[in-house]
Amino acid sequence: MKITCIMILSWPFSMLLLADKSQTSKTEVKYNFTEKNYSLIPVGINNNVTILDLSYNQITLNISDTKVLQMYSLLTELYLNENKVTVLHNNSFCNLSNLEILNFCRNHISIIQQGAFVGLSKLKQLFLCQNKIFQLNPDIFIPLSNLNVLSLQGNLISSFDVPQPFYLESIILHGNPWNCTCSLFNLQNWLNAANVILENESITTCSYPDVLKNYSIKTAPFTADCHSKLISRLNEDLYIPFQTINTSTLNSSLNNLTRNSEHEPLGKSWAFLAGVIITVLVTSLLIFLAIKGPVWYNSLLNYNHHRLEEHETETYEGGLTRNPSSLSQTADTISEDTTVIFDQLHSFVVDDDGFIEDKYIDTHELCEEK
């Protein structure tokens, strides 16, 4: 009786387990077409396929292939490694909303268009290893909101701007010619700040410059060349006409500096911030002097009035009082000159006989007296 009761009570749970197993067996439909020398994705596969392995073929993933893929909307895993794919076109997987694993390792991919991964909102693992990728646009990863693992090993990538936000559990980057200068700081800061595992960190090293070879990209230090480039770029951003310099401009420049300083390793940001602030202040002072300098110079040239100094007054008075003998000599000289001039004037008067002619004397009377 007890056994019967136990069986009756456990029957619903056993039915649920059986249902789950049967559902799992129904939902997982796998097709393996490896090493079939296919040049196209085969048509006529069960539309309920969930795992499709097309590794080691000649597939190029052209337009006809992407149309065929749209029919397999229940795919959760797609393996196209070791094929002939060169370009990942826009909307190649837009109907594969259930896809969780996508493997393109060991192809010839050199171009990934910006909308190549649109629709893959559930993708968790993306493998792009051993290709010919030279540069990656960070916007291509924006649709991958649930991505956990990213493999980029064995490409030609020298720098990588991490999209924001970007959350991963693991990333594989070794085998690339990393340029450990300014272009690395964004990636380096993200690797140090985010809770992400850099797989094979010891062999994920810098290839340039030579002084940083064998440094891990996660710990490579700053270089002097990078400092100068950052300062010159900041000076270009701050170079504007002096008429527009105001408090808001200074605040925006400092905000840009703060955002740029987030891309620097710890321990250098404060020194760089101080240097830029000093540069801004010196530039403002030079502009102020350039504006006010001519005005001050003209004011100094126009100011010609000044007080008579005391020693000049004493000289003037001393010249009049301290040499009385010179005054007497001067007076004698003047009197002598006057006498000479007077004599010269009288030298031109005709000598007379001592008589004074009087016009009132009658001449007839003079004659009668004679």
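^ that was protein a. below is b, sequence first then the tokens
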Amino acid sequence: MTAEIGAPATTSARTPSQTRIAIRSVAHSVAASARGAVSRLRAGGARVGRATAPVTGVVSRVGWLVLLVAAVSLGLAGGFGWIEFAFLGATLVGAMLVSVPFVFGRMHYRVGIELQPSRVVAGERALGRLAVENAGAAASVPSRLELPVGAGVAEFVIPALEPGTGHEELFAVPTNRRAVIVAGPAVSVRGDQLGLLRREVRWTEPVELFVHPVTARLRPSAAGLVRDLEGEVTKTITDHDISFHALRAYAPGDALRNVHWRTSARTGQLMVRQYEETRRSQLLLVQATSAGHYASDEEFELAVSVLASIGLQVIRDATRLATVTDRLRLRTATPTSLLDDTSRIEPLATGAPSIRDLVREASKRIQTPSVVIVVGGSLAPLAEFRAVETVFGPDTRVIAFLAERGAAARIARVADSIVVTVGSLDELSRLVRRVRP
């Protein structure tokens, strides 16, 4: 009797009430309506912003602050009758009105930016030239041009120019550190002296200056770490090579040129040749850019110089090369393209993968490399370099170059890997000549 009474009660408790269902439906409808209203408001605000951009775009941050203070002051004056705030609000509004005429006027300039040279080595001198010509039919009024150069901004005062005449300004570009320095765009600025209103006109596109890392010139024999492996016989069996290994039965799809006809005639069955694969030079050059692997910025720059120096010599020796970092895949078609890309290498504060994962991802896009060179810092754990060995088979040699400024140059073997410690770039050529995989 108890079970019969309890069963309906349990079923009723599990069945949602109609009131709860209705409330839930209304809540979903209200939420959907609210989302739609917010989307429409955003779209409307974006359209209004685009329509008013020619007007609101000339108001600087200082100008917006002045308008806000003026509105608050006039509101306090109207609400509480404080004459002082009315005077303050009227003064600020008057200042905005007085600055309006300064943004009017049109200039007809032809502006050019030149960097000489466009590529330098860190520490070398680089100069820039800003040329402005009046392309209008009437004389121009004095104006001010701003030119961003790297992290700074250079300001130039352009005097009044007659039609067809020009004006030049020279400037120095800081090249103390490897980087890609962007000069431009050149922007003319019209506005009041207080900076309330500011109208900018862009005249040029940005121009890049490549500040290459300092490199060491390696002797051609220094690429012996790759050349010594050229032509070595591996344990891989292939159908296309020069080192004969054995014969096997013909299988559909085998090339007829590999059929050994004399043996086939003797056995009455088609037999094809097999070969032992010889090593083809493919070098994978990797730099781990995690900031935690380097003791200082100078050490990081030394590592980049090691990477660039080895890469340049491998390219000159016409060896197949792939060069990567945690975030970049560097071009290796020419020495210049490689150096340009090394100028963009920056340390990663967070998000850097392990060295093993970095090498594994890089090797997916190329043939199995004969030599893997990993460049890192003095704080990188040796266990990470040893882990690279597990990515490849026994036919791949792993060499680690550790940049450690001021350390004694040395070559050590850790498990099956070679670890080269570089304390100065001047030592690199001698160390590379001593490395034999």
